[in-house]
Amino acid sequence: MIEVIGLSKRYGRLSALIDVSLRVNAGEMVVVLGPSGAGKSTLLRCINHLTEPSKGEVRIGGETVPRDRAGLRHVRSNIGMIFQDHNLVARMSVLKNVLAGRLARMPQMLSMLQIFRADDVRVALDCLKRVDLHERAWSRADRLSGGQQQRVGVARALAQEPRAILADEPVASLDPKTARIVLGDLKRAARDLDIAVLCNLHQVGFAREFADRVIGMHAGRIVFEGSPQALDAQTLARIYPGLEDSTAASANEKIENLRLAS
Ligand code: ADP
Ligand code: MG
Questions:
Q1: What residues does each domain of the chain span?
Q2: Per residue in 157-204, pLDDT tens?
Q3: Of 107, 96, 46, 40, whose CA–CA distance to 72 is shortest?
Q4: Is 20 in the pocket of ligand 1 (CB under 6 A)?
Q5: Radius of gyration from C-alpha coordinates of the chain
Q6: What is the pTM of this model?
Q7: Which CATH code fits 2-40+53-213+224-231?
Q8: Residue of 7, 8, 14 to mutate, ligand 1, most atoms within 8 A of C-beta
């Protein structure tokens, strides 16, 4: 599972994260909501030390993330990442893209030569099955639709056999119907495989639909933590100040506008 204790991050005079503590249990999907600039991406980047936190501690599966290279490599092999842009290699097959998730678990010589063992291929195909794309294993990645490519991104993260997955606005560029399929795949896999998922989203509706728990951030601080059912108008106004007078229906639209404006 993921444990974050007293995490702070400063960029010069700007405090991007202020004393953030949270915990995501195995099998649980926690969604982080917050306006642009709230610190959602910084939080994820600090958790796997793509960004060095100014203060605080991160533990993955009970282990403190060490700062040395070997330690970082080990911890990162336990954390799958999913970004808004799936970052697939367009000209490679779907299967090879998913196998890339296995690289950290392979002997270095084999990974350098891109020789994949039968076991690795089996794991990769199983992960593709979990996102219902095993029949496309031998297609070139760029022949797939945007939503399918993001599901391959999910399969690649799963192929790493991680203890945790960090997803930074994984459905930001997808239409709502496709986004639901991707989030559904992610949630189901996390539950079935006992993976802790921390997922940044900007759509309140998706948080209501898919989150086991929601964390609301504003200006670097956690301003809400609770069940998605607790996301009433008052709570949303704390996460997205300026929306106090909004009905639930118009809030989503205003949040989207805030996002586009920033
Ligand atoms: P979010 O993902 O919620 O939109 P971010 O984590 O990207 O928010 O950003 C939080 C704050 O930190 C913002 O004010 C942003 O401008 C700032 N920030 C993020 N990355 C950097 C950086 N590398 N250098 C300086 N400031 C940064
Ligand atoms: Mg962000």
A1: 2-40+53-213+224-231
A2: 999 999 999 999 999 989 999 999 999 999 998 999 999 999 999 899
A3: 46
A4: no
A5: 18
A6: 0.90
A7: 3.40.50.300
A8: 14
